[in-house]
Amino acid sequence: MGKRVLVCGGAGYIGSHVTRLLIERGYYPVVIDNLTTGHRAAVPISCPYYQLDLRCQELLSTLLKQEKISTVFHFAAYSLVSESVRNPYKYYANNVQGTLSLLEAMRQSGIQSLIFSSSAAVYGNPGMLPIPEDHPTHPINPYGESKLLVERILRDYHTAYGFRSVALRYFNACGAWSDGEIGEDHRPETHLIPLILKRGVLAGETLPIFGHDYPTHDGTPVRDYIHISDLAEAHILALHYLEHHHVATHFNLGNERGYSVLQVVQASQHVTGHQIKYEFVDRRQGDPAELIAQSATALLHLGWKPEKSTLEEMIASAWEWHRKHPEGFRA
Ligand code: UDP
Q1: How many whole angstroms from 68 Cα to the centroid of ligand 1?
Q2: What gap in Å lies between CA 213 and CA 211, rounded to an integer?
Q3: Ligand 1 pocket, residue 172 CB under 6 Å
Q4: Would you say the CB of residue 69 lies under 6 angstroms from ligand 1?
Q5: pLDDT average, residue stretch 2-17
Q6: Contact in structure between 80 and 131 (CB atoms under 8 Å)
Q7: How many Å apart are CA 56 and CA 108, to the nearest integer?
Q8: Ligand 1 site, residue 147, Cβ cutoff 6 A
Q9: What HEC string does 157-224 produce?
Q10: Which atom, in ligand 1's list, is nearest to the CA of 221?
């Protein structure tokens, strides 16, 4: 039997894709999720699954021992930037306190290896582009701050207790599993590509574009979009990496290419063959103008290189999921 790993937040967007890839590669993932934002239907039926909050430390510790877990993948977090600005308590309590509880449960169970889902939000408004991993970190919202705090905690756990960890700083994850059977389904949905496809194309509604006076080539914010299957692949590589490296480190995961909101809208029109209506509205709080990754370090250390990197490819993959499942997992 393959290696037994725990996937915290395995019913969420990124966690459910990593779970599928782990199964495909012969691992034995055990999923926990508190289902506040995740979907039970996103977890394969064959996969051991427990509805559990990270803050239930004793239960978690028992589970880790019973299931003979060797490594933990940690995706269980809230991830809405604007909500984090309005309700920081929610973000620190879940994202930071929840992680501390997980780390303590791991310590009680003698597990020392963790792959953590971090974010480009740790950089805030970057001083240079593309952003290298050693770029200063100045988050501009509580979400980014919560991810950075966890990275710091992981480094301290390495120094004090010998914990090994890789924090993967995702840029803008998008797309869906190759068969279009799982994909992005946030409630409320706030991410650009699903909103364009669900509201703009399927419902024919007008898409609000948050700001057109940013210092970018067309005035709309620029992001580095990265396919979910490329992200998932990086987690498998990080698992191999931790088998041979006693470190607490972090890598950027992006395409090293930026697209503006308007470019994403245009590419979506091209992929779907539908005209998308949009209007410019005020900027969204906490949004930086431009985020583009330098991902050379992930290539050097993990051997990771994105494969599905054109914008059209990524949108087509997301479109396959939304077209087949207009109600998401609710159907
Ligand atoms: N965006 C927009 N309209 C929307 C949703 C998003 O203009 O309805 C913009 C948002 O301001 C940002 C970009 O799209 O510049 C990507 O936003 P998303 O929420 O997908 O990811 P983020 O970069 O915030 O993690």
Answers
A1: 40
A2: 6
A3: yes
A4: no
A5: 95
A6: no
A7: 13
A8: no
A9: HHHHHCCEEEEEEECEEECCCCCCCCCCCCCCCCCHHHHHHHHHHHCCCCEEEECCCCCCCCCCCEEC
A10: 15
The DSSP code for 163 is: -
- The response to whether residue 16 sits with its C-beta less than 6 Å from ligand 1 reads no
In whole angstroms, give the CA distance from residue 284 to residue 173: 19
Residues listed for the chain = 331
pLDDT in tens, 153-196: 999 999 999 999 999 999 999 999 999 999 999 999 999 999 99
User: Coil, strand or helix: which one is 189?
Assistant: coil
The interaxial angle of helices 142-161 and 98-108, nearest 10 deg, is 20
Strand partners, 225: 172
d(CA 263, CA 276): 12
Helices 311-324 and 261-272 pack at an angle, to 10 degrees, of: 60
Q: What is the pTM of this model?
A: 0.97
Dist. CA 238 → ligand 1 center (Å): 28
Test site for ligand 1: of 201, 261, 315, most ligand atoms within 8 A of the Cβ: 261
Nearest to 113 by CA among 66, 157, 75: 157
Between the CA of 47 and the centroid of ligand 1 the distance, in Å, is 33
- The catalytic residue positions are 143
